[in-house]
Amino acid sequence: MKDYFKGVRRHIGKLDANQLREQYELLSGEASALDTLFRTITLGIILVDETGTIQKSNPAAKALLGMEPSDALPELDLPYGKSSKREISITYPEARTLELQTVPVENGTLVYVRDVTAEKERSEEELQRGAFNAVRDLASGVAHEIGNPLNALSLNLQLLERNPPDAAEIIKESRHQVERLDGILRGFLSALRPSRPNLAPAAVTGPLTSCLSALKSQFEQHRIAVTVDVPGSLPTTAIDVAQMEQVFFNLLKNAFEAIRDGGAIDIDVTYDDNDVIVRLKDSGLGMTSEQVAHLFEPYRTSKEHGTGLGLMITARLVRDHGGTIAVESEVGKGTTFTIRIPRLEKRVRALK
Ligand code: ADP
Ligand code: MG
User: Fold this and answer.
1) Is any ligand 1 atom within 6 A of the Cβ of residue 44?
2) Alpha-carbon distance 269 to 337, whole Å?
3) Number of the ligand 1 atom closest to the C-alpha atom of 308
4) 334-342 and 54-57 as β-strands: parallel, antiparallel, unpaired?
5) Highest-pLDDT range among 14-18, 193-197, 286-290
6) Which of 28-42, 89-103, 319-333 has the lowest mean pLDDT?
7) Which terminus of the chain is less hemmed in, N or C, by CB atoms within 10 Å?
8) SS3 202
9) What is the CA(306)–ligand 1 centre distance, in A?
10) Under the phi-then-psi rule, with left for phi > 0, alpha for psi from -120 to 50, and beta for the rest, what region is 77?
């Protein structure tokens, strides 16, 4: 479409009235189709200009937000000009979860509003079906890992047939291979279907600090400066320490891989009336809008040896803690992940 406009602009002086009419008709047809799409699509779309003023919004945006987008947007504090994605809960017109996405365009920012209530409320059965599909899709990736211990086992069985006196040693080695197989399967299953978090009152800084110290020498080696800003006192949260370690580890590892060499990771922890908020900002590669759009979906990886599972698991773990995860990113500048974990007293109240 961009090329088309460029072409027309270049030749516009040479077009006669008939050719201009032809182009006009072509474009008005196109515009009316796009307009119909804009008005009928169930995705909420809002176009905001560089000053933050709404240029255009569709009926779905108003219906999903439950109010005029011009009233809703100032409350939402979206990062205009950046690619971002996050979820919010609304209570009016009914309790729903909306996903908000920003996509920078030439003269402003597109805001997409999508209803993800049904996705979030997916029944346990569906989650299990999802895990089943995921396992099936993963099979090819796992195949070679399973292949090696299986080969070793079959070799051991042959040896056993030929050299019964060596049985003890061969059985020991076989048992080791079986354990390895078991470990591989367990790892993938727990990655795909994490167990329910075992929540206990604790500060989120515990797992954060232990992850940071585990990664410290790697960061130093690659000249990545890490800063951590934590207030003197922090409200308690209900967390599963091991799972939150996995959350921070996945995020820090991604930040590390996005920076590669020489850069900064800035972490700050704050809180508001509802949540303890951890922001992890990296000075890495950043992501395109397309990458952000599909973030948290399995098997989306830009890395040669990536699994594309880290963020899906991370998002699920955060959700299992009753929290939310949000991202904003700019290509070449970096990425910020924001995690909100509900304060303990809020959770206790919500459960009562
Ligand atoms: P993996 O790390 O195995 O690729 P993840 O689910 O952890 O899988 O991440 C998915 C993709 O999201 C990555 O391949 C990368 O393209 C992108 N990504 C995640 N975190 C960052 C980040 N901090 N900076 C830039 N890109 C990121
Ligand atoms: Mg990762």
Assistant:
1) no
2) 12
3) 8
4) unpaired
5) 286-290
6) 89-103
7) C
8) strand
9) 8
10) left
Residue 336 Cβ inside 6 Å of ligand 1? The answer reads no
| Cα 254 to ligand 1 centre (Å) | 5
Check: pTM over 0.90? Answer yes or no: no
Closest residue by Cα to atom 19, ligand 1, is 254
Which residue has the least CA distance to atom 14 on ligand 1? Answer: 301
CA atoms of 263 and 278, how far apart (whole Å): 20
Query: What is the distance between the alpha carbons of residues 340 and 222, in angstroms, rounded to a whole number?
Result: 29
d(CA 143, CA 137): 11
Burial of 290 (0-12, 13-18, 19+ CB in 10 A): exposed
Q: Which residues contact 32 (CB under 8 A, 6 or more apart)?
A: none
CA dihedral 244, 246, 252, 255 (to 10 degrees): -120
Q: Which amino acid is located at 289 in the chain?
A: S
Q: Which residue has the tokens 């008939």?
A: 18
Measured from the Cα of 312, ligand 1's closest atom is 6
Please give the Cα distance from 34 to 31 (Å, whole number).
5
**pLDDT tens by residue, 170-229:** 888 888 888 878 767 766 665 655 567 889 999 999 999 999 998 999 999 999 999 999
Of 96 and 279, more confident = 279
List for the chain the helix, strand, coil content (%; round to 5). Answer: 50, 25, 25
Structure tokens at 140: 């090819």
> Is the distance from the beta carbon of residue 255 to the nearest atom of ligand 1 less than 6 Å?
yes
Ligand 1 nearest atom to the CA of residue 307, by list position: 3
Closest by alpha carbon to 280, among 314, 236, 233?
A: 314
Q: Rounded to a whole number, what is the largest CA-CA distance in the chain?
A: 98
